[in-house]
Amino acid sequence: MRRLSIVFCSLAIVFLLLTACVKEKEEASEMGSLENIEGVWEGTIDTPNQPLPIIIEFELDKGKISIPVQGVSNYPLTNVKLNESDVFFSMNIQGQNLTFNGKVEQENITGTFTQQGQAFPFKLLKGSKEEEVEKDRLIEVKVEDGTMSGQLEIPKGEGPFPLMVIIAGSGPTDRNGNSIALPGKNNSLKMLAEELAGNGIATIRYDKRGVGINTSLAGGEEDLRFDQYINDATAWVQFAKSDERFSKVGVIGHSEGSLIGMVASHKADADAFISIAGAGRPIDQILLEQLQAQLPENLLEESTNILEKLKQGEQVKTVSQELQSVFRLSVQPYMISWLQYDPAEQLQKLTGSVLIVNGNLDIQVSVKDAELLHQAKEDSDLLIVDKMNHVLKEAPADREGNIAAYSNPDLPLAEGLIDGIVSFLQAHVK
Fold first, then answer.
1. What's the rounded Cα separation, in Å, for the pair 260 and 165?
2. pTM beyond 0.70, yes or no
3. Judging by beta carbons within 10 Å of its beta carbon (0-12, 13-18, 19+), is residue 352 exposed, middle or buried?
4. Do 336 and 313 touch, CB atoms closer than 8 A?
5. Is-contact 234 148, C-beta < 8 A?
6. Residues 21, 23, 24, 28, Cα dihedral to 10°
7. 3-state SS, residue 381
8. From CA 335, how far away is CA 332, in angstroms rounded?
């Protein structure tokens, strides 16, 4: 477990937070049954600079918390009380008294953590971790720092089948396409895998290191590099290529997973690559475009200078408080490694078949980016899905309705997405 000095305050708070939901039955006449909150909960503590992702697992008589970015895994919880819908937790860490108060509302827990007069809101959603995963569909591969688990979907009938490795997008995103930093679930990648299986195409999808069933692979934020994600994806492609159950092996990368997938496809000589909502420009250009709409001139100029230094491989120790959430020192090594890759250049290296997919209602990655990728790889296929947003769902044109689809697992995938992908794969990966 890595040292807690940098975000100890956040960490301590986290410990309290989740414990509130999880422990022994005390005073049965007053306290509710902990069976009501038994299971895995995922969410964040709203600490300064950025939300702190956490994972809590409650059992009948105990609980544990994981904080991936802090390297904390399965830390035991204590002193949790549940009184009807109210939860309370108190904990003494290195002489500091930490308390948590919250409410349980169906599959949500929200409340406040307090430490030495400082209060931090938190939110938890009933999580997934290993739920819905049948043991015979869990597979493992050796990666840097240990073993990574993934989920295999195989079509019915006789193989061998073509297989696609699905790579999730940015942030603490799991194999199903859900981010523990955001409320609700969309299950976009889970639905994609299931639809492909119904069309004779096998898939492997996996939680990113530090997330869900791969929480144990988390390291300190300052230790994370973009190449680790590339190496993880490469390992999965190589694993699938060595398995006789699969005829050909390709990659599907969503959002940030698109760039990861491009590089991994080249390293592992994949038979096909599909980019979904992938950026067509280096990340510094996209960041500046996003920041331009949010920052005053002086902070935008500072951001430009910081990115120039990072592109040269130099860290910037002095960063304005307003920019800490984007350019804090601990995340700069990751950004430096990320900035070394230009999507257009990486795509040109691929020798297999390529499909570029984007939705025309994606408010995070524009159709312009898909067109840039298509221009960079002239023999690629281009699919623009009408009314599709960033999480692959059909969405309304208004921003509020579009974002609401991010947390609605009942919405089907946008019409035309599966047909387009299946047609491409049937033509190029048999």
1. 12
2. yes
3. middle
4. yes
5. no
6. 0
7. strand
8. 5
The percentage of the chain sitting over the pLDDT mark of 90, rounded to a whole number, equals 58
Residue bearing tokens 């005829």: 247
Cβ-proximal residues to 43 (8 Å cutoff; 6+ apart), any chain = 53, 54, 109, 122, 123, 124, 125, 127, 180
User: Token pair of 71, please?
Assistant: 């390297």
80 phi and psi angles, rounded to 5 deg: -105, 135
First to last CA, the chain: 45
User: What are the structure tokens assigned to 112, written together?
Assistant: 């406040």
Using the predicted structure, report yes or no on whether residue 81 has a pLDDT greater than 80.
no
In angstroms, rounded to a whole number, what is the distance separating the alpha carbons of residues 120 and 360? 38
Q: Which two tokens stand for residue 186?
A: 């969309």
Using alpha carbons, select from 337, 313, 335 the residue that is nearest to residue 326: 335
Asked whether the CA dihedral 68, 73, 79, 80 is positive or negative, the reply is positive
β-bridge mates for residue 412, sequence order: none
pLDDT band with cut points at 50, 70 and 90 for residue 314: very high
Burial bucket for residue 151 (CB in 10 Å: 0-12, 13-18, 19+): buried
The DSSP line for 191-247 is HHHHHHHHTT-EEEE-PPTTSGGGGGG---GGG--HHHHHHHHHHHHHHHHT-TTEE
Report DSSP state, residue 288: H
- The 8-class DSSP code of residue 173 comes to B
pLDDT of 252 above 50: yes
Give the Å distances, CA to CA, from 35 to 21, 26, 58, 62, 161: 10, 13, 9, 11, 42
154 Cα distance to chain centroid: 23
Torsion, Cα of 277, 280, 282, 284 (10° steps):
-70
